[in-house]
């Protein structure tokens, strides 16, 4: 990816507004609910390979 040169008179810096207390609480509650919902997922245990022995065929 290359460097983007700013054209004359154009500023690419974006200043976002600060969050209100209500927005901070809403985001925090959403993150907690998301983590609680997705933390209950379980992983399956790995299966181990079984060693099988070949049967001897009578000659």
| Low-confidence region ranges | none
Q: How would you spell out the order of helices and strands? A: H
In which range does the helix fraction lie? 25-40%
Tally of helical segments: 1
Q: Could you give the distance between the termini?
A: 69 Å
Please state the overall shape, judged from the principal axes of the Cα atoms.
elongated
Oligomer status:
single chain
Overall pLDDT metric: 82
Q: What would you report as the Rg, rounded to the nearest angstrom? A: 29 Å
Structural class: mainly alpha
Q: How much of the residues is beta strand, in percent? A: under 5%
Provide a brief overview of the structure.
By secondary structure, this protein is mainly alpha-helical.
Describe this structure in words.
The protein is an all-alpha fold and 59 residues long. Helix content is 31%, strand content 0%. The radius of gyration is 29 Å and the shape is elongated. The protein starts with 20 loop residues before the first helix and ends in a 21-residue tail after the last helix. The mean pLDDT is 82.
Descriptors for this entry?
elongated; mainly alpha; 59 residues; 1 helix; 31% helix
Any chance you could write out the topology, listing elements then pairs?
Blueprint: H1 21-38
